[in-house]
Specification:
Layout: H1 23-28, E1 37-42, E2 46-51, H2 52-74, H3 77-85
Antiparallel strand pairs: 1-2
């Protein structure tokens, strides 16, 4: 598993399409009754679930990482020309 990933167990989909999030996962991710969770398809056959309150922070950090990567690329002379061509 990758850093930060953890297996919390398996769940069964009920007749109405519902699943119960394992208690250990709810505790680790601070999921409480009434929280709004967003569900995305990831990698064509996986589900990603994120608390709507955490999504803004997740996206912000992703853009920070991209910004840092852009700075590194722009500091490399040979890469600058290639980036400008694209």
């Amino acid at each position: 598993m990758l850093k930060g990933e953890k297996f919390f167990g398996s769940v069964t989909v009920g007749e109405r399409g519902q699943i119960v999030i394992p208690a250990a996962a709810r505790e680790a991710l601070n999921i409480k009754a009434g929280d709004k969770l967003l569900v995305f398809r990831a990698h064509s056959k996986a589900l990603m679930v994120i608390n709507s309150n955490d999504l803004a922070e997740y996206v912000s950090k992703a853009f920070e990482r991209l910004s840092e990567f852009e700075k590194v690329v722009n500091e490399l002379p040979e890469d600058k020309e290639r980036v400008k061509e694209v």
